[in-house]
Design brief:
single chain, 237 residues, alpha/beta, Rossmann fold, Arc Repressor Mutant, subunit A, four-stranded mixed beta sheet, 8 helices, 12 strands, DNA-binding response OmpR family regulator, transcription
Length: 237
Amino acid sequence: MTDAHIVLTHGHLDTLETLSQALHHQGLTVATHSSWTALQAWLTVRPASVLAIDLDLPDGQGLEMVRELRARYPQLGIIALSEDGSLNARIDGLSSGADAYLVQPVDARELHLTVRTLLRRLPLAVGECPPGWALNPRTLTLTAPNGAHIALTHNETRVLNAAARAEGALVSRRCLIEALGANYWDYDERRLEALISRLRRKLPGLSVRGIKGQGYVFDPVRLDGQQPVSRVAEHVN
Protein backbone atom coordinates (compact mmCIF):
# COMPACT_ATOMS: atom_id res chain seq x y z
CA MET A 1 0.00 0.00 0.00
CA THR A 2 2.97 2.32 0.32
CA ASP A 3 2.89 2.80 -3.47
CA ALA A 4 -0.71 4.03 -3.43
CA HIS A 5 -1.26 7.65 -4.40
CA ILE A 6 -3.34 9.55 -1.87
CA VAL A 7 -4.54 13.06 -2.65
CA LEU A 8 -5.71 15.45 0.07
CA THR A 9 -7.40 18.71 -0.92
CA HIS A 10 -8.42 21.20 1.76
CA GLY A 11 -9.05 24.93 1.88
CA HIS A 12 -7.44 25.43 5.30
CA LEU A 13 -3.65 25.12 5.09
CA ASP A 14 -3.20 24.20 8.77
CA THR A 15 -5.68 21.34 8.46
CA LEU A 16 -4.10 20.29 5.18
CA GLU A 17 -0.67 20.05 6.78
CA THR A 18 -1.88 18.26 9.91
CA LEU A 19 -3.82 15.58 8.05
CA SER A 20 -1.19 15.04 5.36
CA GLN A 21 1.55 14.58 7.96
CA ALA A 22 -0.60 12.09 9.86
CA LEU A 23 -1.14 10.02 6.71
CA HIS A 24 2.53 10.29 5.77
CA HIS A 25 3.55 8.98 9.19
CA GLN A 26 1.38 5.94 8.49
CA GLY A 27 3.47 5.14 5.41
CA LEU A 28 1.19 6.65 2.78
CA THR A 29 2.30 8.78 -0.17
CA VAL A 30 0.26 11.98 -0.03
CA ALA A 31 -0.11 14.85 -2.51
CA THR A 32 -1.77 18.02 -1.20
CA HIS A 33 -3.73 20.82 -2.85
CA SER A 34 -5.59 23.79 -1.44
CA SER A 35 -7.91 24.54 -4.37
CA TRP A 36 -10.25 22.80 -6.80
CA THR A 37 -8.37 24.32 -9.75
CA ALA A 38 -5.02 22.90 -8.62
CA LEU A 39 -6.57 19.49 -7.98
CA GLN A 40 -8.11 19.33 -11.46
CA ALA A 41 -4.81 20.21 -13.12
CA TRP A 42 -2.95 17.59 -11.08
CA LEU A 43 -5.41 14.78 -11.80
CA THR A 44 -5.14 15.23 -15.56
CA VAL A 45 -1.51 14.07 -15.55
CA ARG A 46 -1.01 12.07 -12.35
CA PRO A 47 -2.53 8.86 -11.00
CA ALA A 48 -4.51 8.77 -7.76
CA SER A 49 -5.90 5.92 -5.69
CA VAL A 50 -7.87 7.76 -3.02
CA LEU A 51 -8.89 11.42 -2.79
CA ALA A 52 -10.10 13.22 0.33
CA ILE A 53 -11.72 16.51 -0.66
CA ASP A 54 -13.02 19.42 1.39
CA LEU A 55 -16.50 20.26 0.10
CA ASP A 56 -16.01 23.88 1.18
CA LEU A 57 -13.08 24.70 -1.12
CA PRO A 58 -13.20 28.43 -1.95
CA ASP A 59 -13.25 27.83 -5.71
CA GLY A 60 -15.33 24.65 -5.65
CA GLN A 61 -19.05 23.94 -5.76
CA GLY A 62 -19.60 21.41 -3.02
CA LEU A 63 -21.14 18.16 -4.19
CA GLU A 64 -20.80 19.18 -7.84
CA MET A 65 -17.08 18.49 -7.42
CA VAL A 66 -17.84 14.97 -6.22
CA ARG A 67 -20.21 14.33 -9.12
CA GLU A 68 -17.63 15.52 -11.64
CA LEU A 69 -14.85 13.46 -10.06
CA ARG A 70 -16.97 10.32 -10.04
CA ALA A 71 -17.94 10.80 -13.69
CA ARG A 72 -14.37 11.41 -14.85
CA TYR A 73 -12.54 8.95 -12.57
CA PRO A 74 -14.83 5.96 -11.93
CA GLN A 75 -12.10 3.95 -10.16
CA LEU A 76 -11.05 6.72 -7.77
CA GLY A 77 -11.83 6.32 -4.08
CA ILE A 78 -13.49 9.56 -2.93
CA ILE A 79 -13.78 10.74 0.68
CA ALA A 80 -15.97 13.83 1.14
CA LEU A 81 -15.06 16.14 4.05
CA SER A 82 -17.73 18.54 5.31
CA GLU A 83 -18.72 20.51 8.39
CA ASP A 84 -22.35 19.56 7.78
CA GLY A 85 -22.94 16.38 9.77
CA SER A 86 -26.68 16.13 9.26
CA LEU A 87 -28.19 12.88 8.01
CA ASN A 88 -29.45 14.53 4.82
CA ALA A 89 -26.01 15.95 4.08
CA ARG A 90 -24.35 12.56 4.53
CA ILE A 91 -26.93 10.87 2.31
CA ASP A 92 -26.51 13.55 -0.36
CA GLY A 93 -22.74 13.15 -0.25
CA LEU A 94 -22.85 9.39 -0.70
CA SER A 95 -25.54 9.67 -3.38
CA SER A 96 -23.33 12.09 -5.32
CA GLY A 97 -20.61 9.48 -5.69
CA ALA A 98 -18.49 9.71 -2.54
CA ASP A 99 -17.33 6.39 -1.10
CA ALA A 100 -17.19 7.86 2.40
CA TYR A 101 -18.40 11.03 4.15
CA LEU A 102 -16.48 12.38 7.15
CA VAL A 103 -17.61 15.29 9.31
CA GLN A 104 -15.12 18.07 10.04
CA PRO A 105 -13.07 18.62 12.06
CA VAL A 106 -11.80 15.24 10.92
CA ASP A 107 -9.89 13.00 13.29
CA ALA A 108 -6.66 11.91 11.58
CA ARG A 109 -7.11 8.35 12.83
CA GLU A 110 -10.58 8.11 11.28
CA LEU A 111 -9.29 9.50 7.98
CA HIS A 112 -6.40 7.02 7.97
CA LEU A 113 -8.69 4.04 8.62
CA THR A 114 -11.09 5.21 5.90
CA VAL A 115 -8.24 5.52 3.39
CA ARG A 116 -6.97 2.05 4.29
CA THR A 117 -10.45 0.57 3.91
CA LEU A 118 -10.79 2.03 0.42
CA LEU A 119 -7.32 0.86 -0.58
CA ARG A 120 -8.22 -2.71 0.34
CA ARG A 121 -11.16 -2.52 -2.07
CA LEU A 122 -9.42 -0.75 -4.94
CA PRO A 123 -7.26 -3.59 -6.34
CA LEU A 124 -10.42 -5.51 -7.26
CA ALA A 125 -11.74 -2.59 -9.28
CA VAL A 126 -8.41 -1.52 -10.74
CA GLY A 127 -7.63 -5.08 -11.77
CA GLU A 128 -10.55 -4.98 -14.20
CA CYS A 129 -8.75 -2.33 -16.24
CA PRO A 130 -4.94 -2.65 -16.55
CA PRO A 131 -3.01 0.59 -15.95
CA GLY A 132 -1.73 2.63 -18.86
CA TRP A 133 -3.30 4.42 -21.80
CA ALA A 134 -6.28 2.66 -23.39
CA LEU A 135 -7.84 3.64 -26.72
CA ASN A 136 -11.40 2.80 -27.71
CA PRO A 137 -11.61 3.55 -31.45
CA ARG A 138 -15.36 2.92 -31.53
CA THR A 139 -16.18 5.65 -29.02
CA LEU A 140 -13.28 7.98 -29.99
CA THR A 141 -12.14 7.92 -26.36
CA LEU A 142 -8.74 7.60 -24.70
CA THR A 143 -8.57 6.50 -21.07
CA ALA A 144 -5.59 7.89 -19.14
CA PRO A 145 -3.68 5.86 -16.51
CA ASN A 146 -5.60 7.69 -13.78
CA GLY A 147 -8.96 6.66 -15.28
CA ALA A 148 -9.81 9.98 -16.94
CA HIS A 149 -11.76 9.69 -20.21
CA ILE A 150 -10.57 12.02 -22.97
CA ALA A 151 -12.64 12.67 -26.08
CA LEU A 152 -10.74 12.50 -29.37
CA THR A 153 -11.30 13.65 -32.92
CA HIS A 154 -11.40 11.11 -35.74
CA ASN A 155 -7.88 11.99 -36.88
CA GLU A 156 -6.49 11.87 -33.33
CA THR A 157 -8.04 8.43 -32.96
CA ARG A 158 -6.50 7.24 -36.24
CA VAL A 159 -3.03 8.38 -35.15
CA LEU A 160 -3.32 6.76 -31.72
CA ASN A 161 -4.71 3.59 -33.26
CA ALA A 162 -1.56 3.33 -35.38
CA ALA A 163 0.52 3.99 -32.26
CA ALA A 164 -1.32 1.24 -30.36
CA ARG A 165 -0.61 -1.27 -33.11
CA ALA A 166 3.08 -0.34 -32.99
CA GLU A 167 3.22 -1.41 -29.30
CA GLY A 168 5.76 1.26 -28.37
CA ALA A 169 7.90 0.87 -31.51
CA LEU A 170 8.65 3.56 -34.08
CA VAL A 171 5.68 4.56 -36.25
CA SER A 172 6.86 5.99 -39.56
CA ARG A 173 5.50 9.26 -40.91
CA ARG A 174 4.21 7.40 -43.95
CA CYS A 175 2.35 4.91 -41.77
CA LEU A 176 0.64 7.75 -39.87
CA ILE A 177 -0.26 9.62 -43.04
CA GLU A 178 -1.80 6.52 -44.58
CA ALA A 179 -3.64 5.83 -41.30
CA LEU A 180 -5.27 9.23 -41.84
CA GLY A 181 -6.54 7.96 -45.19
CA ALA A 182 -4.27 10.28 -47.18
CA ASN A 183 -1.94 9.68 -50.12
CA TYR A 184 1.61 9.83 -48.77
CA TRP A 185 3.04 11.40 -51.93
CA ASP A 186 0.47 14.21 -52.09
CA TYR A 187 0.21 14.92 -48.36
CA ASP A 188 1.64 18.08 -46.79
CA GLU A 189 3.59 16.68 -43.83
CA ARG A 190 3.21 19.95 -41.97
CA ARG A 191 -0.40 18.91 -41.37
CA LEU A 192 0.82 15.77 -39.59
CA GLU A 193 3.23 17.84 -37.49
CA ALA A 194 0.38 20.17 -36.50
CA LEU A 195 -1.78 17.19 -35.51
CA ILE A 196 1.01 15.70 -33.39
CA SER A 197 1.54 19.09 -31.75
CA ARG A 198 -2.16 19.28 -30.82
CA LEU A 199 -2.01 15.77 -29.36
CA ARG A 200 0.98 16.69 -27.20
CA ARG A 201 -0.88 19.70 -25.80
CA LYS A 202 -4.06 17.69 -25.26
CA LEU A 203 -2.28 14.71 -23.66
CA PRO A 204 0.65 16.13 -21.65
CA GLY A 205 1.14 12.83 -19.84
CA LEU A 206 1.58 10.82 -23.06
CA SER A 207 5.12 10.88 -24.42
CA VAL A 208 5.38 11.37 -28.19
CA ARG A 209 9.03 11.44 -29.26
CA GLY A 210 9.91 12.57 -32.76
CA ILE A 211 12.70 10.74 -34.63
CA LYS A 212 14.08 13.12 -37.26
CA GLY A 213 13.42 11.97 -40.80
CA GLN A 214 11.67 8.77 -39.65
CA GLY A 215 8.56 9.14 -37.50
CA TYR A 216 7.41 9.05 -33.89
CA VAL A 217 7.66 6.82 -30.84
CA PHE A 218 4.58 6.89 -28.60
CA ASP A 219 4.12 5.66 -25.06
CA PRO A 220 2.42 2.24 -25.26
CA VAL A 221 -1.32 2.55 -25.91
CA ARG A 222 -3.64 -0.42 -25.41
CA LEU A 223 -6.58 -1.06 -27.71
CA ASP A 224 -9.45 -1.25 -25.25
CA GLY A 225 -11.42 -4.48 -25.25
CA GLN A 226 -9.23 -6.13 -27.87
CA GLN A 227 -6.55 -8.79 -27.86
CA PRO A 228 -2.94 -7.65 -28.40
CA VAL A 229 -2.32 -6.99 -32.08
CA SER A 230 0.79 -7.34 -34.20
CA ARG A 231 2.90 -4.31 -34.96
CA VAL A 232 2.12 -2.25 -38.00
CA ALA A 233 4.36 -2.75 -40.98
CA GLU A 234 6.98 -0.02 -41.19
CA HIS A 235 7.33 1.93 -44.41
CA VAL A 236 10.48 3.61 -45.61
CA ASN A 237 10.02 7.37 -45.25
